[in-house]
Specification:
Layout (H helix, E strand, L loop, with lengths): L1 H12 L4 H12 L3 E7 L4 E8 L10 E2 L6 H7 L3 E3 L12 H6 L3 E8 L5 E9 L8 H30 L3 H34 L5 H32 L8 E3 L2 H15 L5 E6 L4 E3 L1 H18 L6 E8 L2 E9 L5 H4 L21 H11 L3 E7 L2 E9 L3 H9 L1
Parallel strand pairs: 8-10
Antiparallel strand pairs: 1-2, 1-6, 2-3, 4-5, 5-6, 7-9, 10-11, 11-13, 12-13
Helix pairs in contact: 2-5, 2-7, 5-6, 6-7, 7-11, 8-9, 9-11
Length: 402
């Protein structure tokens, strides 16, 4: 049982959005203690905690489940919501509020992908709070469902990784999984993005605005990941990434936007940009923007923090090229040969760094443009260079496909 609980804690810990969810719950409800708890018939264990009350509960700590209201949520399958214990006929004489000293409390069930009970998203505070409003209950329900969806994704990933032993079977099952994942994630993700946009139109406190903006950025990051996996699926199943080619005279602005966005996301690192584009470039500007974003993010994550990252874009002598350079240890030649493979990560990388599709998407965009990719690493620096003919990209792409 302890091994199962430890695995459940690890599953919650693997969900990168959990701290943001707990912060959002605290901001929306006003509760100063919020947590995700794994609840069984005989145990209550914290999997993630936000504690501004100083209760001292940390991840992995347990309580006697019989002393908690989460036991009631487990047995009934329904939320428990208390605005003010002293005014609540059902709970004002209950032993749990007296034991833990709270006046406001909320607990919603979290279910596993198969519908079985996992635990609760819960929170409490010594002061009363308006928790039973429709807006609060809807938001909390959405957060509990989002955690359930993440648990489903983690379970599918774990099962896939355990089952796929043969390389061919690995590719086939992974592509099927990604196609389903891309479809199933986009519907709740669209609801979250719509919700954050609606919240941003309302007057909010500075703290709430910060939380909503963080939620929006997290949702956009998830959206980008979904876009990557869908590009992967289309690339593998449809013969490559489709392009919307045109003569683009304003490519500089597309590239500057990428640099500005990533500079905001990595304010502690320096990014230099050099652009020399005297004429239009025949390309798909959105895909070129995506290519630069993936290359630049790769440089920011893996390059030396103390050295700047340099982006150069130029068109000369009938060629268009983009290069991204960063300082840091050289990449081994054997590793360079693996960089553009889908789902590949160096052994030192952790799962939170992404799905391992960024450089694969870069290579597919280059292939669709009939371009080349070059990686040079040594003497404390690494440079990725995308290079293509400034014209006749369609003809070059057709030759590459042949």
């Amino acid at each position: 049982m302890q091994a199962e609980i430890a695995a459940d804690i690890a599953a919650i810990k693997a969900i990168s959005s959990v701290p943001t969810i707990l912060e959002a719950v605290a901001a929306i409800t006003g509760l100063r203690f919020v947590c995700i708890a794994r609840v069984t018939h005989d145990s209550w264990t914290t999997c993630a905690v936000r504690d501004e009350l100083g209760l001292g509960l940390k991840v992995g700590d347990g309580l006697d489940v019989a002393t908690t209201l989460c036991e009631e949520v487990r047995d009934s399958g329904r939320p428990v919501i208390i605005d003010n214990v002293s005014e609540d006929a059902r709970y004002r004489d209950h032993h749990t509020p007296r034991l833990y000293g709270f006046q406001s409390y909320i607990s919603l069930p979290i279910h596993r992908p198969d519908g079985s009970y996992f635990g609760t998203l819960c929170g409490l505070d010594p002061l009363p709070a308006s928790l039973s409003t429709t807006a609060t209950v809807s938001s909390m329900t959405l957060f509990a469902q989002l955690i359930s969806k993440h648990l489903e994704t983690e379970l599918k990933l774990t099962e896939s990784q355990s089952a796929l032993l043969d390389e061919r079977d690995t590719s086939e099952l992974r592509e099927q999984f990604i196609a389903v994942l891309g479809h199933d994630v986009r519907t709740p993700l669209s609801s979250i993005l719509l919700g954050t946009e609606l919240l941003r139109r309302e007057p909010l406190s500075a703290q709430a605005e910060s939380v909503v903006e963080r939620m929006r950025r997290s949702a956009l990051r998830i959206s980008a990941l979904v876009g990557d996996v869908m590009d992967f699926t289309r690339g593998r199943m449809g013969g490559g990434i489709a392009l919307d080619l045109r003569n683009e005279a304003g490519l500089r602005q597309w590239l500057e936007q990428v640099v500005a966005e990533l500079q905001g996301a990595y304010p502690e690192q320096r990014i230099g940009l050099e652009v020399d584009l005297p004429h239009s470039v025949y390309c798909d500007p959105a895909r070129i923007q995506q290519l630069l974003s993936n290359l630049l993010k790769n440089a920011l994550v893996h390059g030396a923090r103390s050295e700047p990252v340099l982006v150069c874009a130029r068109a000369r002598d009938g060629q268009f090229e983009i290069s991204v350079s960063n300082g840091g240890p050289a990449i081994a030649p054997a590793t360079i040969g693996q960089l553009f493979k889908p789902f590949w990560r160096a052994s030192s990388q952790v799962a939170s760094e992404g799905l391992g599709l960024g450089l694969f998407i870069v290579s597919e965009i280059a292939r669709s443009h009939g371009a080349t990719l070059e990686v040079i690493s040594g003497d404390g620096a690494t440079r990725f260079t995308f290079r293509m003919q400034a014209g006749a990209s369609v003809e070059r792409r057709m030759l590459v496909r042949a």
